[in-house]
TrEMBL record:
GO terms for molecular function: DNA-binding transcription factor activity; transcription cis-regulatory region binding. This is HTH-type transcriptional regulator TreR. SUPFAM superfamilies: lambda repressor-like DNA-binding domains (SSF47413), Periplasmic binding protein-like I (SSF53822). It comes from the Bacteria. It comes from Buttiauxella noackiae ATCC 51607.
Amino acid sequence: MQSRLTIKDIARLSGVGKSTVSRVLNNESGVSARTRERVEAVMQQEGFSPSRSARAMRGQSDKVVAIIVTRLDSLSENLAVQTMLPSLYEQGYDPIMMESQFDPELVEEHLGMLKRRNIDGVILFGFTGINEKMLTSWQSTLVLMARDAKGFASVCYDDEGAITSLMAKLYSQGHRHISFLGVPHSDVTTGLRRHNAYLAFCKEHQLTPNVALPGLAMKQGYEHVAEVLLPETTALVCATDTLALGASKYLQEHQSNALQLASVGNTPLMKFLHPEIITVDPGYAEAGRQAVLQLIGQVTQDRELRQIVIPCTLQ
Ligand SMILES: O=P(O)(O)OC[C@H]1O[C@H](O[C@H]2O[C@H](CO)[C@@H](O)[C@H](O)[C@H]2O)[C@H](O)[C@@H](O)[C@@H]1O
C-alpha cells in the first residue's frame, strides 16, 4: 500500500517549495495563479488531503480547541490534559497543544495566532501576569485553569483546603513540629494561598511555623529542604508533589527517614515511588473533564461563565 503523501511530497511533485504548498492550502496571497493551479492539480491528481492535525493547526478543521499549558513537563497539568483530550475527541473537537512557560507575552502571541485562525475555543492554564485585558476578546470561548478572573469561566483547585487537610491529618497523628516547603507569594495559588493556609493552621493550633518558599522545581525541593529541618521537626508539608520528590531524595541521602512527608498532588509518580508519603488529590483529572464540559457548553449552547472549584480529597 502506498504511504500517505505529505506536503513535502506535493512540493516535490509540483516543483515548488513546502511554504508555497502551505500558502496554497491556507489560501494565502503570494502565490501566482499559475503556480496555485499547478499545485492544486497535483493535489487533486494524488488525492492529497492534509492530515487532521495539520488542518487543525491551520484552523481548517471544523472544530478546533487549543490547550495552552504552562509547562509540558508539569505532572499536575498533564493529569488534567489527560482527561481533556478524550472528552474533546468524543465531542468531535481536534485539540492543539501549546506551552506558555509562564510568559504572558507568549500567551498573547499564541492567542493572537489562534484568533487569526478562527479557533473555536481555548483552555488556558492561568498564572500570575495573565490579566483580564489580554483575554477580553475570548471571554465567551475561554476557560481558565487553576486561576479565576472576573467575568471569565474557570476551573480552580481548593488550595487552602488541600493544605488544611494535610495539616489536620498530621496533627491527628500527634505531630506538633510541622515544617512547610512551598512556593514564593508571587504565585498566588500554589504559593500564597497554600502558605497562608499552613500559617492559619499553625496559628489556630498554636504551632510554631517553620517555612522555606523556594519555588516549583524538584531541584529546589532538594536544595532547600535542609533549611526547614530543625532537631524537633517530625513532619514536613510540601506545597506540591514535585517539591516533595526533591525533598525526599535529600532526606534519603542524609538518612533522615524518620520524618513524615505530606504533599499536594497525589500524582502517579509519587504514589509509585513513595506510597508512604501522605498526599491530597486536588482533582486534576476531574478539573480536565469539567473544563471541557464548560468550554463546549459555552461554544455550543451559550452556557453561563461558571467559576468551578474542584474539591480536594485526602488519600
Ligand atoms: O509540579 P507540578 O506537577 O507541575 O505541580 C505544581 C503545581 O502546578 C500547578 O500550579 C502551577 O501552574 C498553574 C497553572 O497550571 C499556575 O496557575 C500556578 O500558579 C502554578 O503554581 C497546579 O495548579 C498546582 O496544583 C500544582 O501543585
